[in-house]
């Protein structure tokens, strides 16, 4: 069963949140995941300066160690959170700026 780390879309029309999940890659976007690993809230709350991402680092590292592959958007957040290294094979290959 090929596992993929990706985002699931939840919430109301103008108040979306994303769940970081480990899920079989053949299942639809909002299908039942094998495990929920974190929550991304892209909206700023009153008094906040940064978007919030809550995740379980040890479970993410476990899924990566057993062969799960992150989607491109999830890989960018994992690089920003220092969970995977930018030179890793799992990190997205970004084009150099001209």
TrEMBL record:
SUPFAM superfamilies: Ribosomal protein S16. GO terms for biological process: mitochondrial translation. This is Ribosomal protein S16. It comes from the Eukaryota. Belongs to the bacterial ribosomal protein bS16 family. GO terms for cellular component: mitochondrial small ribosomal subunit. GO terms for molecular function: structural constituent of ribosome.
